[in-house]
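Objective 1b. Sequence-to-structure analysis of Transposable element Tc3 transposase.
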Amino acid sequence: MLQNDGVLDRCRQMVDPNMVFLQDIALVYKSRLAKNFMIDKNVELRDWPAYSPDLNVIENMWEIPAPKVYVGARECQMVLELKNTILLVWETLDQP
């Protein structure tokens, strides 16, 4: 994904050209292709603990809307449907 969509380049433009990429121990990050890509692109890597939702702000935040997004074991068939569902749920949350 980083390579094909130019995501890495856009992230560097929006965040910081010298950003650090945090990764866990998922096998997808350990492949030769992924390692070579990161080396070729001069990406600084930092290891992230294997399963650390307590350190992941997104995981902690997602606990709030997720039950409403997936109520009744709902599954969205398209990305746009999921996005719209999340936005609708977000609007119903108590913001403070």
